[in-house]
Design goal:
single chain, alpha/beta, FAD/NAD(P)-binding domain, 24 strands, 32% helix, 19% strand, binds flavin-adenine dinucleotide
Length: 490
């Protein structure tokens, strides 16, 4: 069977895959391919097109440090501009020619020192290094409600928005109140005749004070890049010195978030019952603290019902709650988040001695610094286990992972790099011990957790993350070189 051979195969063309591609090219490596199942680049920002979609980390920080954009229109950019940024980045840096679209990867097997990557359509790629850049928030999750299939109207997940459905004047249901829901609910509330929001557990939400940038500010960011850099640094500090301490349990800052949240609810929601329902009953920071200038205004509207009785079943024409109320709906929108575990769920990966990754992770995913896992040589993960965050930009953290991978690739040369089991075990013990003291562990379930373990988030601040990733401890790895290299060295 024909196999295209590469030094690296990267799976996924979102911020992770494209950013690594840029760094590889900068270091003179051109022998790689990016396999992407969609028909374009952008990942999250191609797939999520719901009304109101935007980043919740300010754009100056939620962009590559090596590709600043002085042209952001808003402090928190809208999805079309983020997608356009990443598309231009790929085009302008000659990355597109490395991307092959329509390639859904289903298998990756480590055989005789090489990775064999197989796609759904039977294409096979052979490479020295396999890099997973498939994201954490990619597989829409829709609860299996009783009667779901009986529903006769249109229904779709927020990440698979059906733009052919006109919501104006309709009786709409939104199930879920997480980060995507908080963005789309205000937009739907404006045009729907009636909107019923089905809430399981409310969020801690504070104002973001979004605004468009003036022409002068854009001009300044373009002409005096140092100002743009300082501004980016200021945004980073807000996450690092305000939100991160809240997650660690800082009392005063936590009280401030609770106070701001209460003021917002009071200002925009007049109905006493709705106000009570909006009050979270878990520690601030345990789930992502959401930023919104419009959410409570939307919930406070007369055409919006906040339903908290729980969903018993879905019927032909609406939803029945556990207290037997029946709400008729023309459209149901599932803003119910993503399957975040197990990582790499869609790809069957086998490492040394045929070990299956799913088996290796049967108690939840883990990886040394989120990038490598023992028994799977020459395999790297971007935005892998325990690399997510609740307070800063994923892109900032991806950049540290790029450096880590580049350094390991350079040291491995034509050979093999594998993290030792002892280093990985020690790292996991440290990570889980530290995670158990953070707010994320103080809630029964969230997308950060797989069972009792926090599997998605990093246990420390982003400075420590950067430092540890960018200065690999080479003793934690085994490197082996092909026979010919050894002979040459002797
Ligand atoms: C609505 C939304 C808003 C967000 N806002 C923020 C924010 O403000 N700040 C922040 O830090 N983070 C945010 N995130 C998290 C966001 O996912 C990351 O910031 C970032 O986009 C991750 O990039 P990625 O390249 O790792 O993954 P993705 O963007 O998910 O890209 C993964 C790519 O891999 C492809 N792929 C997946 N499986 C396969 C396969 N088997 N074969 C081939 N290709 C495959 C996908 O099609 C996709 O193109 C948000 C997420 C969502 C869903």
């Amino acid at each position: 069977m024909h196999q295209d051979r590469y030094k690296l195969v990267i799976v996924g063309a979102g911020f992770a895959g494209l950013g690594l591609a840029y760094k590889l090219k900068q270091s003179g490596i051109e022998d790689f391919i990016i396999l992407e199942k969609a028909d374009g680049v952008g990942g999250t920002w191609r797939h999520n097109t719901y009304p109101g979609a935007e980043c919740d980390i300010a754009s100056s920080l939620y962009s590559y440090s090596f590709a600043p954009n002085p042209g952001w229109d808003f402090k928190w950019s809208k999805q079309p501009q983020i997608l356009s940024y990443i598309e231009s980045f790929a085009r302008d840096n000659d990355i597109l020619r490395h991307v092959k679209f329509g390639q859904a990867v289903k298998r990756a097997d480590y055989t005789d020192g090489r990775w064999i990557i197989k796609t759904q359509d039977g294409e096979v790629y052979n490479c020295q290094f396999f890099v997973s850049a498939i994201g954490q928030l990619h597989h829409p999750s829709v609860p299996d409600f009783d009667g779901k299939a009986d529903y006769k109207g249109p229904s779709f997940h927020s990440a698979q928005w059906d733009h052919s459905v006109d919501l104006s004047g309709q009786n709409v249901a939104v199930i879920g109140v997480g980060a995507s829901a908080a963005q789309l609910i205000p937009e739907v509330a404006k045009i729907a005749k009636h909107l019923t929001v089905y809430q399981r557990s409310p969020n801690w939400i504070i104002n973001k004070h979004d605004r468009p940038y003036s022409r002068f500010e854009k001009w300044l960011a373009k002409k005096v890049p140092v100002i743009a850099k300082l501004y980016r640094g200021g945004l980073w500090c807000q996450g690092e010195y305000f939100i991160w301490p809240v997650i660690k349990g800082a009392k005063l800052r936590g009280a401030l978030v609770r106070g701001l949240n209460a003021l917002e609810i009071k200002a925009h929601v007049k109905d006493a019952e709705k106000r009570t329902k909006l009050k979270p009953d878990y520690p601030v920071g345990a789930k992502r603290i959401l930023l919104s200038d419009t959410y409570y205004k939307a919930i406070g509207r007369d055409n919006v019902t906040l339903e908290t009785d729980g969903i018993a079943r879905i019927q032909k024409a609406g939803i029945q709650t556990k207290t037997s109320k029946v709400h008729p709906h023309d459209v149901i929108i599932y803003a119910t988040g993503f399957h975040t575990n197990p990582f790499l769920k869609e790809i069957a990966v086998t490492g040394e001695a045929g070990t299956e990754l799913r088996e290796h992770w049967n108690e939840g995913a883990f990886a040394y610094l989120g990038v490598t896992t023992s028994g799977f040589p020459n395999m790297f993960m971007l935005y892998g286990p325990n690399t997510n965050t609740g307070h800063t930009s994923i892109i900032y953290k991806l950049e540290a992972q790029f450096e880590h991978i580049l350094k390991l690739i350079a040291k491995a040369g034509e050979g093999m790099v594998s993290v030792s089991k002892s280093a990985e075990d020690a790292y996991n013990t440290e990570a889980q011990e530290k995670l158990s003291k953070l707010a994320w562990a103080k809630i029964e379930a969230s997308w950060y957790k797989d069972g009792a373990r926090v599997t998605n988030n990093w246990h420390g601040g982003s400075v420590e993350f950067k430092r540890r990733l960018e200065s690999p401890i080479y003793e934690h790895f085994t490197f082996s070189h092909p026979i010919s290299d050894k002979t040459a060295a002797e």
